Amino acid sequence: MSEPITVELHTPETRPQREQLAARTWRGISGAFTVGLVLLAIATVAVQWYAGGRDLPGLGWDVVTGHWIMAALAVVCQIFADRRRGWKAALFSLGALTVGFTGLWIYWWA
Question: Which residues cross the membrane (predicted)?
């Protein structure tokens, strides 16, 4: 039985350069904030469902929908931030934070 021919692939000598600590930290903060927005959206559904089942005034389905839209936009921004490098990643991270803070301002503080 003949042995298969093995072709050696060229591997680079250097490892890919890691991003700076500030960039990784910035993306980590925006990622944690985005996870918080998703958890908040899940909580709004639970509160609305609980209130609806007990004839209590809840948040309203418009507020719940707004939280889900806010969370979805933040997740999309965060995905783009995680797959980019440099100023584009920082811009998408800022977008996730901006969407989140705007939504929190509209639904909770204003």
Answer: 28-51, 63-82, 89-108
